[in-house]
Amino acid sequence: MTHAIRTLCISLTAVLWAGPALAHFGMVIPSQDVVTDKDKAKVDVVVSFSHPMEGNGMDMAKPKSFGVVEAGRKADLTGTLKPAKVMDHAAWSAQYVFKRPGVSTFFVVPEPYFEPAEDKFIEHLTKVVVPSFGEEEGWDEPVGLAAEIVPLTRPFGNYVGNVFTGKVLVDGKPAAGVTVEVEYYNKDKAYEAPNEYMTTQAVKTDAEGVFSYAVPFAGWWGFAALTEAPETIEKDGAAKKVERGAVLWAKFLEPKRKKK
Amino acid sequence: MTTRCRCGFFLAACLLCLATARDAAAHRVNVFAYVEGDTVHVECSYSRSDRVRFGDIDVQNAADGKSYLTGKTDEKGDFSFSVPPAARAAKADLRILLRAGEGHRNDWTVKYDEYAMAAPAARATLADAAPVAAQATPKAAPTTATQATPVAVPSVAPAAAASMDTAAFKALLETTVEGAVEKKIAPIRKMLLDDKEKGPGAAEIFGGIGWLVGIAGIAAYAKSRKSGRGA
Fold first, then answer.
1. Is the pLDDT of residue B56 over 90?
2. How far is B172 from chain A (nearest CA, A)?
3. Rounded mean pLDDT of A93-110?
4. In the structure, what pLDDT confidence band is assigned to residue A84 with cuts at 50, 70 and 90?
5. Which of residues 163-202 of A touch B (CB under 8 A)?
6. Residue B120: its pLDDT value, please?
7. Domain B26-121 carries which CATH code?
8. Alpha carbon distance A143, B216 (integer Å)
């Protein structure tokens, strides 16, 4: 009996302490990484808050705002969000039709999520960039979020193995020494991490707010630069800290091999 | 010494090549087309800010490569044409081939389904107004339409009211109203496409409504004159 309780306690402690292994990620995943064909210009953009490598979902409240920026023009798409399921949890999905050549950056500002295990709110400002019909100018333009990753590597049309480089901006200024968590969207749980350290990869920004990561295998990769927001949110009479993550998703592909 | 010279020459040649090759040389050239009414609008660019000036366009039957028409893009990389009647008759997909010089070429296909729904040739006279206004930039388009319409509408309508019978007048009025509405709508349509995010501004919408009210007023005036004479 005592033994059982002790085991339970140890397990619980382990679960509560296993923060780094279970990284939260805001996710914005389009059904297509690029749009090249007018017949396939209807794209589903799925918004969720999940643990992408482990395939564990969390219920996500309707985002404060969801929109797209193309050539400096911002459009609010919050009204187009419909409830969806990601990893068996509440998520959101919107259909977007690409009509013109352009580079469209989708962004999500979520309702802050209270994480009891960490006793803080988490707010991941998340982006993904989708080019259409051959245009590729404008992928390096910031959206103007409170915290965001501005890509220095074009965030689409990349091969596996490419080094991805980005710059973390907080209130528009480069953020030095920020940890950037990197995680793979392990769709259908195709992969397994060999040990707990492998679930989430980590890099840090340099003095200019720049980080790099060499992508090891094909699929969607998320980069989450984690900063602490200057403000707190009141909950149960106590001021709670707010983790403000700047997240960017990008897909990396294997080349096609010609059949001989 | 000779070897060094040669190396130097080679290096200089390489540098010269690099220097003269425009940025565009590294780019793909893009062709994109959309259909509006009976008109196909073609946009050619290396990128958002680097358009294909005066590129050669060849519009072909996608199936057999037979050329329907040729032309050149303007300085903004744009080119418009009416759907060739032969293509419509043959239900052909249109291949729009762009040759932008320096060996850059690309093409875009407009499928028959995409233009089949559009206005057929019979309505071309009215539809003509739309493409003309639509070709201008979104900013310029409303100005063009507003300038053209006041001249056309008031001058025709009262004169017609004096000399025409009711049926003819009604027909003319219909034509005029349709034309005017088409003209007003064209830039809005173009804007909707251009920045689908913004849509037409309040000014455009109220301006359009204003025109409709104005035209209705003219019609009412003409009618009242006619009924007054009859009494």
1. yes
2. 37
3. 97
4. very high
5. none
6. 55
7. 2.60.40.10
8. 46
Q: Is B23 on the interface with A (CB under 8 A)?
A: no
Within 8 A of A102 by CB-CB distance, chain B residues are 48
What CATH number should be reported for the domain holding residue A89?
A: 2.60.40.1220
DSSP code per residue over B63-74: TT--EEEEEE--
- Give contacts of B31 with chain A, Cβ < 8 Å: 134
Domain presence at residue A225: yes
Residue A129 domain boundaries: 23-253
State how many domains chain A has: 1
Contact (CB<8Å) B48/A73: no
CA distance A154 to A139: 6
Residue A178, both tokens: 């920020």
Q: Are A213 and A201 in contact (CB under 8 A)?
A: yes
Q: What is the pLDDT of residues B121-166, one digit of tens each?
A: 444 443 333 333 334 333 333 333 334 334 334 444 444 445 556 7
| Alpha helix stretches (DSSP H) within chain A | 2-17
Residue A48 placed within a domain: yes
B60 vs B155, higher pLDDT: B60
Distance from CA of residue A67 to its chain's centroid?
Answer: 15
Number of neighbours of residue B177 by Cβ within 10 angstroms: 18
Per residue in A191-208, pLDDT (tens digit) is 999 999 999 999 999 999
Q: Is A242 contained in some domain?
A: yes
Lowest mean pLDDT among A91-105, B46-60, B157-171: B157-171
% of chain A residues with pLDDT over 90: 89
Contact A222, A182 (CB under 8 A): yes
- Residue A40 sits at the chain B interface (C-beta within 8 Å): no
One-letter amino acid at B70 equals T
For A230, which DSSP code?
Answer: S
Contacts of B106 in chain A (CB under 8 A): 134
Q: Is residue A2 assigned to a domain?
A: no
* Beta-strand relationship, A238-253 and A120-132: parallel
Using DSSP's 3-state secondary structure scheme, residue A196 falls into helix
